[in-house]
Amino acid sequence: MNKNQLDLLVALQDIDLMLKELDDVKQLGFEVRNEGAEALEKAREELTQKIGKPLLGKYERLRARYKRAIVPVKGDTCLGCFMRLPTYLITHKDKHNQIITCEGCGRILYWLE
Amino acid sequence: MNIADLLGFLSEERFIPELKAKTKDEALEELTDLLVEANLIRNKHLILEMLHRRESVGSTGIGHGIAIPHGRTTAAPELIIAFGRSSNGIAWEAIDGKPVHLIFLVIAPPHEEDNQYLPMLGKLVEFLHDENNRKKLLEIKTYQEFEELIKA
Ligand SMILES: [Zn+2]
Question: Coil, strand, or helix at residue B71?
């Protein structure tokens, strides 16, 4: 599958989410191999090489500022800052593939619908 | 949080008494497809990628024929659970090496206001530690029976 940059960023954020909670799930009794975190870091590294440098920089800056760089849109609302998004973004033809940021908070939008 | 809260995240359309899947990959896909059909997610590839990555860190087969594939993903709108059963059993590289018969898929968004994801995972593990519960889960035939068991 030929993946777009947005999907790659989502996969990257999903790895970051997983890394953060490895210890928590281990405590619940799940197997987390000792080299598990290392494997994730390696996957992360490989993924970042497929993402354009400026976009990756944007992701890291947003992550440093907000913890999560990509936020979902539910209905017409950015779930990062709860601002209602303008109609031209809601109806954007290619919104599932384009990097679109919220005008309120600047985070990258992932459209749930 | 109580195990009965699980019913708030599961429903009859996400309950498969007999999976068609013969392998781990097929089972993950069959369960994820339910979420697509229910219009809960639009991109199953992102979900599957996350689930496979989670398995690469360590098997979610926790032994005694149970697997709880899980993870947070930006593509999930809310905490969602699906259940599938395989009477033949599926190889899951589980910690005890035994095939898996009962599979609970648990996915969550990056951030939830009420933080139910990890407590729910914990309750599920606890519930499935009980041999009696596992036995009953293998015997039930309908979603109604499943609900009764969880509520009991
Ligand atoms: Zn926003």
Answer: strand
pLDDT digits (tens, 9 = 90+) for B106-130: 999 998 888 999 999 999 999 999 9
**In this predicted complex, what is the ipTM?**
0.93
Rounded CA-CA distance B33/B43 in Å is: 10
pLDDT at A1: 42
What's the whole-model pTM score? 0.95
Quick check: is B70 catalytic? Answer: yes
pLDDT tens readout for residues B2-42: 999 999 999 999 999 999 999 999 999 999 999 999 999 99
Active-site option among B45, B52, B64, B70? B70
By the CB < 8 Å criterion, does B1 face chain A?
no
Inter-chain CB proximity B68 and A32 less than 8 Å:
no
Q: Which domains does chain B have, with CATH numbers?
A: 3-151 (3.40.930.10)
Distance of residue B42 Cα from the nearest chain A Cα, in angstroms: 7
Q: How far does the centroid of ligand 1 lie from the alpha carbon of residue A86, in Å?
A: 12
- Residue A109: exposure state from Cβ atoms within 10 A (0-12, 13-18, ≥19): buried
Q: Do A39 and B56 touch (CB under 8 A)?
A: yes
Per-position DSSP letters for chain A, written without gaps between them: ----HHHHHHHHHHHHHHHHHHHHHHHTT----TTHHHHHHHHHHHHHTTS-HHHHHHHHHHHHHHS-SEEEEETTEETTT-PBPPHHHHT-TTTTTS--B-TTT-PEEEE--
Closest approach of chain A CAs to the CA of B73, in angstroms?
A: 5
Q: Into which CATH architecture does domain A2-111 fall?
A: Orthogonal Bundle (1.10)
8 Å CB contact of B118 and A37: no
